[in-house]
Design goal:
α7 packs across α8 and α7 runs parallel beside α9. The chain is 46% helix and 9% strand. It is α/β, with parallel strands linked by helices and 267 residues long. The longest helix has 17 residues. It folds into 2 domains: 167 residues, Rossmann fold (3-Layer(aba) Sandwich); 65 residues, Orthogonal Bundle (Helicase, Ruva Protein, domain 3). The protein contains 11 helices and 5 strands; from the N terminus they run αβαβαβααβαβααααα. The chain has a 5-stranded parallel sheet, sandwiched between helices.
Amino acid sequence: MEDNNIKIKFTDIVGYEMEKESLKEKVILPILYPILFQGKRAQQTNTILYGPSGTGKSYLSKAVLNEMVDKNKFFSLSFDKIINKTIEQRIALIKELFESARKQKPSIIFIDEIDLILNYKIEEKEDTQKFLNEFCSYISSPFVNEENEGLIIFGASNKPWDIIPLFRRKFRRIIYTSLPDLNDRKTLMKLFIGNNDNNITDEDLEKLGNLTEGYSQGEIHDIINMAIKSTNSCITFENIFLSLRSIKPLITKNDLEKFEKFKKEFS
């Protein structure tokens, strides 16, 4: 579903109105208008996006980047950048990331797939404590580390309960990206169908919206994309229904219960 060439902005993202407003307030505005966020109004707390896979966390982070006037003030770290790297190499990567961001202050650091990054080991016997300690020291608040004044740090996680407590405590604000509701699912289907020829009625959308309860934004995209590819002419209810039958939601009831439990404990 990801396309690095898409210049997605907040207005392009269906739903997540509260989440978008929170990111604008806590992440974007302090960078665009730093003079307004000084002294007691300074942003001192890191933010984490969490929710099931496919619920738009990566899209929201891309939107943050594309809402910025100076994109050189946006820095990121993702799991794919640390694969097969030693602890020393991982520490060096973190150091380089923060040193680069500090030179561009005020700036943003986005850390994707936090739970995977923290729990990654090349070998099972590997002791990652040194890496964890170093990483925690770098994301400390400006009260602890003055070099972080002017840095806005936010991250994303599919499994926030797998983030070690020491690290999780560094992120005092949490934003839950839940599965789309009925209205959002219908809107998403219309958006993904786009200008492709179709005879989908409002009644069809209502039926499909109900049938896709429990599906993520990414899975709804895949359903519509499969339906488009399965026909050389007009997209019908039957095309989408057949695609839906072959793509099942990956998020289970137990998964959702874990997210709700985490939300209650840490909100």
